[in-house]
Design brief:
It is a single chain. The protein has 308 residues and is α/β, with parallel strands linked by helices. The chain folds into two domains: 76 residues, no CATH class; 212 residues, Uracil-DNA glycosylase-like domain (Uracil-DNA Glycosylase, subunit E, 3-Layer(aba) Sandwich). Helix content is 51%, strand content 11%. It contains 13 helices and eight strands. α4 runs antiparallel to α8 and α11 packs antiparallel against α12. It binds uracil. The site of uracil (URA) has 11 residues, from loops.
Length: 308
């Protein structure tokens, strides 16, 4: 099931790429030799995977899992039930949930992440709508996220909820995830308490494959990268948020808007300079307006004026 699903993800991504290129008026497509080779071997892989899965009578299919978010799957894992989600048609919501469950399970066992020894053990995956047009990507979970096993549920998450609310969307309408799926350790992690740190480039490099696959499955129309660290991990660019936020970047064909991390806004508010804090909020709002424009969402005059 995993193999067929990842082949389906690959084919969907390829078909979307071809559609985009057609829409751009491209007549030819240049492929890297490794991509050409991968395409060449695809039919054989697909046949093998289908044969293997049709012969496996022992697989337990849990229908409920197909409608669960990965965090819910994580919670149910302690009940002893085997959780193998049944995929629907490629591109359907059911398929997307099943794919995300697969990615969740693989990320949970990420050997490369464990081998670093710098990340804690509890996975924090993603929440939200697997068919979302808007995706928010942060850097790594903090203490509250680790406790709740959900991204952006602490103070930064409450600030993010305000930002999402200002667009007219709800948290359940968007997809929220992090590049790194485990809370970075401080020291050996034993006396860390609630103290957090940003992930480093090695931790992000070990984890990037998971967010890449989440993006392939959700296929959002726009990604909002929250903070310089998330932007660096996702786009492999250096530089400050102020330098990155005035352009629309791209990740695997999806437009990416970079903005300040909600924790940065909270720090600004805490520093007591109300004008500076308001100016930063306004900048974040301008970036979110840009994301809304890319989605062709209706924007009211009132919304345009927020935080002025
Ligand atoms: N900061 C992040 O980048 N992600 C979270 O989930 C929480 C705080």
């Amino acid at each position: 099931m995993g193999e067929t699903n990842s082949i389906a993800v690959g084919l969907t991504a390829l078909s979307q790429l071809l559609k985009r290129e057609k829409a751009r008026g491209s007549k030819t497509l240049l492929l890297k030799p490794e991509t050409e080779e991968a395409l060449h071997t695809l039919p054989m892989k697909l046949m093998k995977a289908v044969t293997a899965s049709s012969g496996s009578a022992g697989e337990i299919v849990n229908e409920k899992a197909a409608t669960m978010t990965p965090s819910e799957v994580e919670r149910s894992a302690g009940t002893g039930s085997s959780v193998v989600a049944q995929g629907g048609d490629a591109g359907s919501e059911k398929w997307a949930r099943a794919e995300l469950n697969e990615i969740f399970k693989e990320a949970k066992n990420c050997e490369e992440c464990r081998a670093l020894g710098t990340l804690r053990d509890q996975i924090v995956f993603a929440v939200g709508n697997p068919m979302a047009d808007m995706m928010f990507v942060g850097e790594a979970p903090g203490a509250e996220e680790e406790k709740e096993r959900k991204p952006f549920v602490g103070p930064a998450g409450r600030k993010l909820d305000q930002i999402i609310g200002a667009t007219g969307l709800k948290r359940d309408d968007v997809y929220i995830s992090n590049i790194v799926k485990f809370r970075p350790k401080k020291g050996d992690g034993r006396f860390q308490g609630t103290s957090n740190r940003k992930p480093d480039t090695t931790e992000m490099a070990a984890s990037i494959r998971y967010i890449r696959r989440e993006i392939e499955v959700v296929r959002p129309k726009v990604i909002v990268a929250l903070g310089g660290t998330a932007a660096e991990g996702l786009l492999e660019v250096g530089g400050s948020v102020s330098g990155l936020r005035n352009q629309v970047h791209e990740f695997d064909g999806v437009p990416v808007v970079v903005t300040y991390h909600p924790s940065f806004l909270l720090r600004q508010e805490g520093e007591g300079d109300a004008n500076k804090a308001m100016a930063m909020k306004r900048r974040v709002w301008e970036d979110v307006l840009k994301a809304m424009e890319l989605l062709e969402m209706p924007i009211s005059e009132k919304q345009r004026g927020y935080f002025l």
